[in-house]
Amino acid sequence: MSRVVEEIADCSRCGLCAERRNPVPGEGDLSSPVVFIGEAPGRKEDEMGRPFVGSAGKMLDSLLSHVGLEREQVYVTNVVKCRPPGNRRPLKGEIRECTRYLNEQLMILTPRVLAPMGNSAAGHVLRRFQLERSSIGEIHGRRFDVDAPWGRVAVYPFYHPAAVLYNRKLEPELRKDFEGLLELLG
């Protein structure tokens, strides 16, 4: 994984590196059966060089704790490894250039479950496996079995943890989806 992290640090393919403070390659247990995938780093993540350390990260930690997991037991990353200016959504070209790093990470990690969080990450993962893209409201908490280069994988999308910060009514659904993840992991 260290080679991929170095490549991400040296990357200038899409231009997001020009304004970043730190690249955010991802972190966690390299043998975790689940990889959580967000869209892109935010302000706090850019400052610290770590994924999901702001308010959404605290919510993710709470959700993991709800099902008896700790952050150190999972792997957390993003589709795009550098913060887009003003926290805007990554552009298609930025995603296209950064996808190679996510693909390399997944080949190293060989997870049994891919857990994209939010519309953008879920859309990216679904497209990668030629699945029909739907809104996160329609597909959250549903299992999609796919063939990845390293074997059979379950794609299990979630609402982004930040969604709960803006709409507290989503929290029970998100907690239920995390309970479903725990069942999926066995």
What is the mean predicted local confidence, pLDDT? 95
How is the largest sheet built, in terms of strand order? 1-3-2-4-6-5
SSE order: HEEHHEHEHHEEHH
Q: Residue share in helices?
A: 40-55%
CATH class: Alpha Beta
**Category from helices, strands and their pairing:** alpha/beta
Oligomeric status: single chain
What is the count of helical runs? 8
Number of domains: 1
Shape: globular
Any idea what the CATH superfamily is called?
Answer: Uracil-DNA glycosylase-like domain
Report the end-to-end length measured between terminal Cα atoms: 26 Å
Q: What is the CATH topology assignment? A: Uracil-DNA Glycosylase, subunit E
Instruction: Please give the radius of gyration in angstroms.
Output: 15 Å
Number of strands: 6
Taking pLDDT < 50 over at least 5 consecutive residues as the criterion, the unreliable ranges are: none
Sheet of most strands: 6 strands, mixed
3D structure, described in words:
There is one protein chain. The protein contains 8 helices and 6 strands, in the order αββααβαβααββαα. The protein has helices at 2-10, 43-48, 55-66, 92-109, 119-128, 136-139, 161-166, 171-185; strands at 27-28, 34-38, 75-78, 113-116, 144-148, 151-155. The protein has one domain (2-185): 3-Layer(aba) Sandwich (Uracil-DNA Glycosylase, subunit E). β5 (144-148) and β6 form a beta hairpin. The longest helix has 18 residues, at 92-109. It has a 6-stranded mixed beta sheet.
Mind sketching the topology for me?
Elements: H1 2-10, E1 27-28, E2 34-38, H2 43-48, H3 55-66, E3 75-78, H4 92-109, E4 113-116, H5 119-128, H6 136-139, E5 144-148, E6 151-155, H7 161-166, H8 171-185
